[in-house]
Amino acid sequence: MPKIVFDQVSKSYGSVQVLQPLDLELNDSEFTVLVGPSGCGKSTTLRMLAGLETITSGEIYFDGKPIGHLEPKQRDIAMVFQDYALYPHMNIAQNMSFALRLAKVDKSEIDTRVKRVATMLHIDHLLGRKPAELSGGQRQRVAMGRAMVRDAGTFLFDEPLSNLDAKLRAKMRTELAEMRNQIDKNMVYVTHDQVEAMTLGDRIVVMSDGVIQQQGTPEELYKTPRNRFVAGFIGSPTMNFMDGELTEQEGALWVRGDGYLLPVAAEAAARLASHGTREVAIGLRPSSITNVINGGAPVELQIVVSEYLGAQSVLATRCGSNELLVEVASAVPIQHGTTQTFEVNTEEMMIFDRETGLRL
Amino acid sequence: MKLARANRLTPYVFMAPAAVIMVIALLYPLGYMVYGSFRAWDPSQNISETEFVGLKNYITLWFDPSFRESLGVTLKFAISVVAVEMVLGVGLALLLDRNIRGMSILRTLFILPMMIAPVVVGLMWRYMYHPTVGTFNRFLKSIGLDGVDWLGQHALLSVIIADIWQWTPFIFILTLAALQSLPQSALEAAKIDGAGGWQQIWHIKLPLMMPVLIVTCLLRLIDAFKVLEVILVMTEGGPGLSTEILALRISRTATEFRELGVAAAMSNYLLMLLLLLTVAMFAFNKIQTARAARLRAAVQEED
């Protein structure tokens, strides 16, 4: 269970740099999730850690020892692949025991370990079958099992759930979260799905365009995103952004844009005072807007579509020329096509520099 | 009703030209040969003038020591060339399945021998094997060794070497194509699981390539049984009968011995042998497809 450190690690293919030099520390026994849109470099980072890609510059350290030049098998890692990567010609037991057999582990020991893990993952009745005889979900479990029978120091997951259908994905996510608590190892998990990242990660690393945008606990990323990208990426439904300008009226700071005028909360106003910029974008989570009027900052929204999701409904609305998602309780009937007054929780409103995208 | 009928006939109309050509170019000569194999037939005779002899040609051949010798030479030749070519071809493919600079040029060079006309290959090797002016013996003498009687004492070995030179590339390109279509992630998983280079080849690559290798092997065997030009040019079957493969004996029986009926019967023996191999290949393919279908069905039941 090593402490893993990336020191200025970068990756280029020819003249194309896919990963800017990045620093990253993965602590012992921590579940770290690398998340970002496709092409952001998260998989490349994981594959460099696994030894499946060479490092162009920089170095990766396990407990202070450089490992960039080591073969995958010398790194004491186990990995679960996106397409499961099972060996099609071996049955499930042989698939799971392959690494142990190569390591010349005692046969009875192999049997015990395979049995134990298979029982844990509910695939013990499938051990004699070939991968082609399994359904997608079962294959996924075998891929997990193959990684788990090895007593590796570090577990790597490369989008392991993305080939499953939505229902199965949710189920496996829960099981993974359960497993995470049972296994005391380093785990590095790559996904493009922010829900997976939020539910599984002790720590989340958000990447975009080959650069780490921010890292922290799920709560930190949700409540204090560093920039507009992280704010927009984390949270579902996604955050609303509207361009606006800061204005001062009667000694208080307001932000004015197309169709709205909202007061800036005192705490944020204090921080904004030191910034010269007036051109901003505000970020509002759909849950920060409510149709329960309680004397807060009002805003007029024209309801375009109402998506009923059960207890909650998501409204697609229009504020001037801006499109805005609003999450409300379904109890109050909402008619689309009408214009209604909503209320904004300005404490939760985020303000970003329109030029740099940084949160102010 | 009429339209539906016309529609059903459409595919046959389109297939008709090909079918006609097949009948003229393949079935007619084949039938002619089978018919001729039951007759005592001299080239000066019209086939209608020939005498029907039943299975006599086949029975004579079966007990003819030269035919048996020729069959033995053919089997020896085919099995040894295909065995060596498989090992070399697969080995080379495993070796050259990587991305380094100039690899595409190297690969093209490797498959060149296959593209040379067999007659040219025969002439080339005959020259190289020449006892006094040939490349090999001149080289051996220049380093102080005795020359080897390539096309005399070691004639079969020499033609085997020439065939290996020409046809290893065939196995090489097919194996290389199979290698490059292997699921990359399974190989990566094997690396992570701790498999070294040899272990990856032995436990992952070879088992996954096996269907392609078996078909390639059968194709090469079929071809090796029919080889003619290279040997004809190099040794003409000699010395003695040492390199007289079946195709050569068939041609000599027809032209030198003037026994068209016997030659036809011999061709049929060879045809049956090849048919056996072809059927084996189709059967293998069929088993593969059936197994895949059964697996799919099993999964669907599960879901």
Structure description:
The complex is a heterodimer of chains A (360) and B (303). Chain A contains nine helices and 20 strands. Chain A is an alpha+beta fold and 360 residues long. Chain A folds into two domains: 4-233, Rossmann fold (3-Layer(aba) Sandwich), CATH 3.40.50; 240-353, OB fold (Dihydrolipoamide Acetyltransferase, E2P). In chain A, the strands form four sheets. Chain A has a six-stranded mixed beta sheet, sandwiched between helices. A five-stranded antiparallel beta sheet of chain A has the order 13-12-11-14-20. Chain A is elongated. Chain A starts with a strand and ends in a 7-residue tail after the last strand. The model of chain A has no long low-confidence stretch (mean pLDDT 89). Chain B is built from twelve helices and two strands, in the order H-E-E-H-H-H-H-H-H-H-H-H-H-H. Chain B is flat, with a radius of gyration of 25 Å. The interface between A and B is medium-sized, with 30 and 25 residues.
Secondary structure elements and pairings:
The complex is a heterodimer of chains A (360) and B (303).
Chain A: E1 4-13, E2 16-26, E3 31-35, H1 42-50, E4 57-62, E5 65-66, E6 77-80, H2 92-102, H3 107-120, H4 136-148, E7 154-158, H5 166-182, E8 186-191, H6 194-200, E9 203-208, E10 211-216, H7 218-223, H8 228-233, E11 240-249, E12 252-257, E13 260-263, H9 266-272, E14 279-284, E15 289-290, E16 297-308, E17 312-319, E18 322-329, E19 339-344, E20 350-353
Helix pairs in contact in A: 2-3, 2-4
Chain B: H1 2-36, E1 39-40, E2 51-52, H2 56-63, H3 65-96, H4 103-115, H5 118-129, H6 135-142, H7 155-180, H8 184-192, H9 197-225, H10 229-234, H11 246-255, H12 260-302
Antiparallel strand pairs in B: 1-2
Helix pairs in contact in B: 2-12, 3-7, 3-9, 4-7, 7-9, 9-12, 11-12
